[in-house]
Design a protein that fits this description.
Order of helices and strands: EHEHEEHEHEHEEEHEHEEEEEEHEH
CATH class of the largest domain: Alpha Beta
CATH topology of the largest domain: Rossmann fold
Number of strands: 17
Strand order of the largest sheet: 3-2-1-4-5-6
Number of domains: 2
Largest sheet: 6 strands, parallel
CATH superfamily of the largest domain: HAD superfamily/HAD-like
Helix content: 25-40%
Distance between the termini: 31 Å
Oligomer: single chain
């Protein structure tokens, strides 16, 4: 099996960086990052990552940073982590100054060439660091970044890539080691489905642990808008591409999309270990929309929402009940939906937003409670 790696910065990530000169050259300046021992120990013992320390130490070995001031601190750091069961397979130190633009200095990869091999799975590896140059290193390695960002502009004068390209490589931004542990422990739940019939051709990709990035095209603009609410407010990444027989009517496109979406949701939830299982409600201007969900393995829909208009946008209102029924059939879940209010657009948009929030609550996982939320022993 190819090895996954955590490339971990030192100063500002494992230990706090001295705020004045950014140079950790005495034991008096040494202070460890909050919670780092607790969660690095769990990462080392519970997860299957190789741990590699990668650090720039500007001018190490020169008059500005004598080596005899560096190594006692470095030894103290390594020994402290070793006592907690955290062992680094390699410690990589670049000693150059930024102005030298050395190929060995982060974000460049000159000291990491041995990781560009079939032995390593860089696509599922991570770079952890507090500078944007660490995140550019993640991009240059083809890995993902975990950004401990106290100051997002730190190191910005050294980057060679556009900030947007670098940000696209960041999987998590946090200053909390417990969040880093949970993120690494709870792998992304990503699934896709292709469902082709004589009436519709459907492709959907879903990341339950995404950030609301959507690419949706069903041929029905209002339906696209509602599905976009699910992704954005449910913090899911959704790609939905539908080619349906709209020349007949909208029914097959809406029904088949939601059946496929429900089936995909059920698939992406996987073993359901650690999920909250239940979720619930949302006001929107004059309307109140309530959605309760239970991913308990049984499909059922209770619907209490009345619409007087025949269509909203290009979407028939008679399909609203039907699309949620289709979802419950595919996802094997209970849904209870109730909405009241005067504005029809607000009412259905509120339902979709409440549905998204209910989904977000129900699929949330707790890394410390990885058991099935059921007395039956199955969902």
């Amino acid at each position: 099996m190819r090895k996954k790696v955590l490339f971990i910065d030192r100063d500002g990530t494992l230990v706090l960086e001295p705020p004045i000169d950014y140079q950790l050259d005495s034991l008096e300046k040494l202070s460890f990052y909050p919670k780092v021992f607790q969660y690095m120990a769990r990462i080392a013992s519970e997860l299957d990552f190789e741990l590699v320390m990668v650090t720039n130490q500007d001018g190490l070995g020169t008059a500005s940073f004598p080596e005899d001031t560096f190594w006692p601190v470095q030894k103290k750091i390594i020994d402290a982590f070793a006592k907690e069961g955290v062992i680094f397979s390699e410690i990589i130190i670049d000693k150059t100054f930024p102005y030298e633009n050395a190929p060995t200095r982060k974000p460049r990869t000159g000291l990491l060439t041995n990781y560009f091999s079939e032995d390593y799975d860089l696509g599922n590896s991570f770079v952890l660091g507090d500078r944007i140059t660490d995140m550019e290193l993640a991009k240059n390695l083809g890995a993902k970044g975990i950004f401990l960002s106290e100051n997002p502009d730190l190191g910005a004068d050294e980057i060679k890539t556009s900030k947007q390209e670098i940000f696209d490589s960041i999987a998590l931004t946090t200053t909390d080691w417990s969040e880093i542990y949970q993120f690494l422990k709870l792998k992304d739940r990503v699934s896709e489905i292709i469902r082709n019939t004589n009436e519709t051709k459907i492709y959907i990709k879903l990341n339950l642990d995404g950030s609301g990035k959507n690419d949706i095209s069903t041929g029905l603009h209002f339906f696209d808008h509602m599905l976009d609410q699910i992704g954005r407010h449910g913090n899911m990444d959704l790609t939905i591409k539908v080619d349906g027989d709209l020349e007949v009517d909208e029914h097959h496109t809406i029904e088949d999309t939601m059946i496929a979406f429900g089936e995909l949701f059920h698939k992406a939830l996987g073993d359901k270990l650690g999920i909250e299982r239940y979720g619930f409600c949302l006001p929107m201007d004059d309307c109140l929309s309530q959605v309760a969900v239970d991913f308990g393995g049984r499909n059922w829909l209770e619907w209490d929402a009345e619409f007087r208009r025949e269509k909203i946008g290009d979407m028939p209102t008679e399909m609203f009940f039907h699309l949620f029924k289709s979802f419950t059939d595919g996802a094997k879940c209970n849904l209870n939906i109730k909405a009241e209010g005067a504005n029809e657009h607000h009412k259905i948009e509120g339902i979709f937003k409440a549905f998204a929030k209910a989904m977000k609550m129900a699929v949330k996982r707790d890394a410390n409670k990885m058991f099935l939320p059921s007395t039956k022993g199955m969902l």
